[in-house]
Amino acid sequence: MTETTKRLLGSCLAIVAVLHVLIQPTDATGAVPMTSENIDMTLASNELVFLNFYAEWCRFSNILAPIFNEAADKIKAEFPEAGKVVLGKVDCDKETSIASRFHISKYPTLKIVRNGQLSKREYRGQRSAEAFLEFVKKQLEDPIKEFKSLKDLENLDSKKRSIMGYFDRRDQPEYDIFRKVATNLKEDCQFHVGFGDASQAMHPPGTPIIVFRPDVALSHENDETYTGSLTNFDELKVWIQEKCVPLVREITFESAEELTEEGLPFLILFYKPDDLNAIKDYKAIIEQQLLDEKQNVNFLTADGKRFAHPLHHLGKSEDDLPVIAIDSFKHMYLFPHFQDMYTPGKLKEFLQDLYSGKLHREFHYGPDPSSNEVKHDNTAKGTSPPESKFKELGPSKHRYTLLEKDEL
C-alpha cells in the first residue's frame, strides 16, 4: 500500500466516523443540536427531520426545550432505524446563518423537512411529547391510498383535490418519484394509486400516467394529465404543487395563523355553507381576471357562519351572505355589492383602490370628487373603517416571541 493510498484511506475513515457522530448520535439523548457543519447532511440522510428553532432567552423556547427533548427520546425508541427520523434543535443566536436560511421570525418555530425538502407548513399544534410523537407517526404514514379498481375512484370527496397515479408495478422507478412527491405534498392533495389490472384501462402497458382531479364541487376546473418527465422529481413536484395549492384557498381557524403570517392582505369571499356556486364563480373570476395579483394578495374563501365575528365588524350578518371584503391587516373594507363581481374589472378596481389608499381615504372623507358611487354604507366625514380582525388570528405573543410584525 502506497503512502498516498494510506492517506486517502485514513481520510475516508475519518469522514465516516465524523458523519456517524453528526448524523446518528445514537448514544445521545434528546434532540440533536444542529450546526452549519451537520445540518445539510442530516437533512439529506433522513426521511423526516423535525426542527425546533429556539433562543436561550425566549421563555417559550425554555418551556418547550425539555418537552421537545422528551419527544425526541420517545420518537427514537419508536423509530430506531437509521435514516428514518431525527428531531433536531437550532440555537438561532449561535447559528444565525441557519436561522436566516429558514426565515425564522419567531421563537420557537417548528419546521418539517421531508426527504430533504422543506415543508411549507410549520407545526402549530399542541406542544407535548405525546402530540409530537403522534404528529411524527402521521408524517411517516404512507401518503398514498391504493385503489383496487377504477370504481373506487367514483367515491372520492368532490371537495378535495386529488392526484391519481396509474402504474404497472410498485417497483417502477417512476412510482418511487411519485411517492416522494406525494410525501412532500400530502397536506395539499389526496394521492391515489393503482397497479396492474386496477389501472390497466387507463394507460398503455409500461407507460405510467398521472392525473389531477380538481375539487369539482368547489371549482369549474377539469381533469388534467401530467405531460412532463415521470423521472424528474422537481418537475413533477412543481406541476402537482401548482394543481394542489389553488390560487384561491379556504381559510379556517386552523389555517389562519399560517395564512396571516404570509403577510399579504386578504381578499375574502364570505359564503353560506351550502352556496357552492358562489365559491365556484368567485374562483373562476379570480383566475380569469386577477392572476397577476397573486404576489400581492391572498385570495381566500371563508365560511360566513364560522367567521361571523369579522362579518359583524363589517356591519353584515349571515343573512347578507355572500359578502366580499379586504382585510389589509390594519383595516377591513367591504366590496359594495356582491353581484358587481360579475362586472369585468370591478374586483381589480377594488384592489387598486386599496393600493392607492382610496378605500381608506373615502372612509375618512367620503367619496372622492371624481367618484359617482358610494363605496360604503358609512362614509360620513371623520369615520374610520373597521379594524382588522384576521390579524388577531396571527401568531400570538402568548405563544411565541415575535421578532417582527408584518403589517400592511
CATH superfamily of the largest domain: Glutaredoxin
The major β-sheet equals:
5 strands, mixed
Which residues sit in consecutive blocks of at least 5 with pLDDT less than 50? 12-26, 371-382
Helix content: 25-40%
Number of domains: 3
Order of helices and strands: HEHEHEHEEEHEEHEEEHEHEHEHEEHHE
| CATH fold title of the largest domain | Glutaredoxin
How large is the radius of gyration? 25 Å
Task: Tell me the fraction of residues in β-strands, as a range.
Answer: 15-25%
Number of strands: 17
> Strands of the biggest beta sheet: in what spatial order?
1-3-2-5-6
Q: Tell me the number of helical segments per DSSP (H or I, 4 or more residues long).
A: 12
CATH architecture of the largest domain: 3-Layer(aba) Sandwich
Mean pLDDT: 89
CATH class of the largest domain: Alpha Beta
Content-based structural category? alpha/beta
